Write a sequence for this structure.
C-alpha cells in the first residue's frame, strides 16, 4: 500500500489586493503608455499574507485540528491543501485521494431536483457518474428525503438541503478528509446521524484535517493540533 | 494539452453543468427549447419583411439568408459578451472545488451550442417552405458546427481570463460586439459592397465573423463549399487554441486569486 501523507514545506500564501484602478484595463494601459504624465500615487502592491512559512508534515493516522481566530488562515490552509490555491512560495506534497468539505452548500442548483443535485455535487467532488449511481440508494436513505428526492430543492427546508449536500459529498471514504467548520445547522436527529457518519469517515480516512473554533470537539476527534495566528503556526502539539 | 484533456476527461462535469443550466432556463416554459426558436422565427420574419424591401432583395431568399445569419450571429454575440462573466459568476465554485477552470468555459459554450443546434429544425422548415434547392454539399455544415465550437472556446476563454483580472473589459466587449453586428454582413450581404465600392471589399474578407457566417450560409443557400472561409476558420481554431493554451498554462492558477 502506498503511503498517505501531506508534506508542507515553507509554505506561504499571498493575496494581492486589487483596488479599482488596478482592475481597470484602461488605467493600466494609460499608465504604461503615458507613464510619466499621469501621477503615480499608488505604485505599491498591497499584499495580504494569508499563510506565512507554514512547515509541517501530516502522516497516515494523524487527525489534525487547526485552531485559530477568524482570519487566522484556517480556511486558506485547507484550500491550499485541497489544491484550490497554489502556494505563493514553498511546496506542498501529498499522496492519497482527497475530499474537501469546505462550503457544503456550494454547487447546489436550487431549481434542480434533489436527485439531480446528488449527481451534480458528486461530480464536483470528483466522483464518476458510476460511483454515484452505485451509491445512490445509500445517499437517498442517509439524507432521509424519501419522495422529496424528485422535487426541486428550493422547496426544501434548510435542514433538508444540508442533509442532501452532506450525504452526496460523503458517501465514499477517501484517504484524506478535509473539513471546515460548518456543522451548525440541522436538527438534533440529523446531527447525531452526521456525527456517526463523520465518525466513520474519520475512522476510515487515514488523514483528517479539521478547522474549528470548538476546542471540545477538537479534543474528541483529533490527536494533534496546530494553532494559527495571522498565518503563522504559533502552537503545535499532541492531544 | 490541458484544454484537450479537460474537454474529454471532464466531459461529464461540464456537460452536466451545462445541461442543468439549460434545464433551468426551460423549466418554466411550456414549449421548452422551442420557445427560443419561436422568438427567433418572429424576429427573422419581421426583419425580413422590412429589410428585403430596403435592400431590394427577394423576400424568399432574404428570409433564409437572415434566418441562418441571425441565428449564427446570436451564438457569436452571446458567446463573446457573456464570456466576460464566466469565471466571475462561478467564483464560489472556483473557490470550493478543484476542477479545471476550463469546465466553466465549456459549460457555457456547450450551453450556447445546444441552443444553436436547436435552430436547425427552423432552418430546415424555412428551406422547405421557401423551396430552396438544397445540394448535398449542405452536409458540410457538420464541420461548420465544429469550427464555430472550437473558435468559441479559445476566444471565450481568453476573454473570460482577462476580464476576471481587468473588470472594465466587459462593457468594452459588449460595445465591440454591437459594432461588429453592423460591420458584418448579417443584415446586408456582401454583394452590396462589391457593387458600390469593390475596392474596399477586403475589409469584409479580413473580418473573421464573415467567414464563420459564410461556412453556414454558403453550403445551405448556394450549395457550394466555401473552402477559403473554412481554411480561415480552421487556421483560427488551431492557432487560437494553441495561443489560449499558452496563456492558460501561465495564468489559469491565478484566476482564483483575482476573484
Amino acid at each position: 500500500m502506498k503511503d498517505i501523507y501531506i508534506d508542507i514545506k515553507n509554505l506561504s500564501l499571498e493575496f494581492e489586493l486589487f483596488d479599482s484602478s488596478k482592475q481597470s484595463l484602461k488605467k493600466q494601459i494609460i499608465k504604461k503608455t503615458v507613464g510619466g504624465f499621469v501621477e503615480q500615487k499608488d505604485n505599491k502592491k498591497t499584499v495580504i499574507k494569508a499563510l506565512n512559512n507554514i512547515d509541517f508534515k501530516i502522516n497516515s493516522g494523524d487527525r489534525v485540528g487547526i485552531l485559530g481566530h477568524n482570519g487566522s488562515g484556517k480556511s486558506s490552509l485547507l484550500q491550499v491543501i485541497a489544491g484550490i490555491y497554489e502556494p505563493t512560495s514553498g511546496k506542498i506534497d501529498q499522496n492519497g485521494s482527497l475530499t474537501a468539505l469546505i462550503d457544503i452548500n456550494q454547487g447546489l442548483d436550487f431549481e434542480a431536483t434533489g436527485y439531480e443535485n446528488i449527481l451534480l455535487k458528486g461530480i464536483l467532488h470528483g466522483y464518476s457518474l458510476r460511483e454515484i449511481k452505485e451509491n445512490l440508494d445509500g445517499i437517498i436513505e442517509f439524507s432521509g428525503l424519501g419522495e422529496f428526492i424528485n422535487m426541486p430543492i428550493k422547496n426544501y427546508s434548510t435542514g433538508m438541503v444540508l442533509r442532501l449536500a452532506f450525504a452526496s459529498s460523503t458517501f465514499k471514504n477517501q484517504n484524506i478528509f478535509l473539513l471546515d467548520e460548518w456543522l451548525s445547522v440541522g436538527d438534533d436527529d440529523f446531527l447525531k446521524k452526521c456525527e456517526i457518519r463523520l465518525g466513520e469517515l474519520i475512522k476510515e480516512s487515514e488523514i483528517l484535517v479539521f478547522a474549528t473554533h470548538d476546542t471540545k470537539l477538537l479534543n474528541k476527534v483529533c490527536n494533534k493540533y496546530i494553532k494559527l495566528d495571522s498565518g503563522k503556526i504559533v502552537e503545535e502539539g499532541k492531544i | 494539452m490541458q484544454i484537450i484533456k479537460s474537454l474529454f476527461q471532464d466531459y461529464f462535469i461540464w456537460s452536466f453543468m451545462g445541461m442543468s443550466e439549460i434545464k433551468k432556463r426551460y423549466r418554466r416554459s411550456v414549449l421548452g427549447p422551442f420557445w427560443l426558436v419561436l422568438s427567433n422565427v418572429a424576429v427573422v420574419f419581421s426583419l425580413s419583411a422590412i429589410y428585403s424591401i430596403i435592400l431590394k432583395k427577394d423576400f424568399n431568399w432574404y428570409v433564409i439568408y437572415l434566418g441562418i445569419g441571425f441565428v449564427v450571429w446570436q451564438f457569436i454575440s452571446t458567446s463573446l459578451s457573456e464570456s466576460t462573466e464566466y469565471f466571475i459568476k462561478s467564483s464560489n465554485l472556483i473557490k470550493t472545488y478543484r476542477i479545471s477552470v476550463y469546465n466553466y468555459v465549456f459549460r457555457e459554450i456547450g450551453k450556447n451550442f445546444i441552443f444553436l443546434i436547436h435552430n436547425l429544425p427552423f432552418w430546415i422548415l424555412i428551406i422547405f417552405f421557401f423551396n430552396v434547392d438544397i445540394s448535398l454539399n449542405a452536409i458540410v455544415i457538420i464541420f461548420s458546427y465544429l469550427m464555430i465550437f472550437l473558435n468559441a472556446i479559445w476566444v471565450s476563454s481568453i476573454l473570460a481570463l482577462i476580464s476576471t483580472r481587468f473588470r472594465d473589459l466587459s462593457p468594452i466587449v459588449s460595445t465591440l460586439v454591437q459594432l461588429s453586428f453592423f460591420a458584418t454582413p448579417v443584415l446586408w450581404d456582401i454583394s452590396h459592397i462589391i457593387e458600390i465600392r469593390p475596392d474596399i471589399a477586403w475589409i469584409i474578407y479580413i473580418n473573421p465573423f464573415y467567414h464563420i457566417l459564410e461556412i453556414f450560409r454558403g453550403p445551405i443557400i448556394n450549395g457550394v463549399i466555401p473552402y477559403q472561409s473554412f481554411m480561415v476558420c480552421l487556421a483560427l481554431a488551431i492557432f487560437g487554441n494553441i495561443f489560449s493554451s499558452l496563456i492558460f498554462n501561465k495564468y489559469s492558477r491565478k484566476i482564483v486569486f483575482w476573484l
